[in-house]
Amino acid sequence: MLKLYGQFMSRAQRCLWTLEELGVPYEHVKTNQGAGESRTPEFLKINPNGHVPVLQDGDFVLWESMAIAQYVAKKYGQGSLWPASVEDEGRVFQWALWASLEMEIYVVNYLRHAMLYPPEKRRPELAKEATDTLPAPLRVLNDSLAGKDYLVGNRFSVADINVATVLLLADIYKQIGVDQYPNIIAWLNRVAARPAWQKLPTLK
Ligand SMILES: N[C@@H](CCC(=O)N[C@@H](CS)C(=O)NCC(=O)O)C(=O)O
């Protein structure tokens, strides 16, 4: 059986969402990264980066949350979460890399340096860099969603999961001005209404 390490309040949530969407049986190991559980010698053997999430599929081990979501979608979600054409597969990769490099890094810095860290650990310049930088990718996302319900092939896919979780993590989208982007808000409401997403907080 698949084994997923990482609790809901972490980037593991996109992997949990993918598994729940597809109804794939898995064991959920609620590794608490905040309590240092991703830094134990035992955990570092499965992810030398010391981060959650990690997926174990038999002897196969995978880290990086978007890669895990895509692996699960490709293996168990052909024709549903994983697209049928090579072009749409390319778009799934495009959106994951874009979300990670152009948006998530700034969203996480804002979360840490404006909200989560104790005042003495905060670096206000990183929170400012985030609020200065995010309007550009948010505009790209908003424009890409014009007249569309979903990011790839006009059906819900792992691309929506990977990108939406950047904004849904800790409801951060409510803090970074996303309300100015109506297509993003409509899309977030659409994907967050899915039963699999609604179920996730109960998993912890
Ligand atoms: N790019 C990685 C980032 C993973 C990451 O930084 N995870 C955080 C939780 S969201 C973590 O494990 N932090 C605890 C630590 O680094 O000690 C991914 O998407 O999987």
UniProtKB/TrEMBL annotation:
State whether keyword Repressor applies. Answer: no
The reply on keyword Transferase is yes
Gene3D superfamilies per the UniProt record, alphabetical: 1.20.1050.10, Glutaredoxin (3.40.30.10)
Sorted UniProt keywords = Transferase
Q: Name one GO molecular function term.
A: transferase activity
- The domain of life for this entry's organism is Bacteria
Domain (GST C-terminal): residue spans on this chain:
85-204
Residues covered by the GST N-terminal domain: 1-80
Q: Which family does it belong to?
A: Belongs to the GST superfamily.
Name the UniProt record assigns to this protein: Glutathione S-transferase
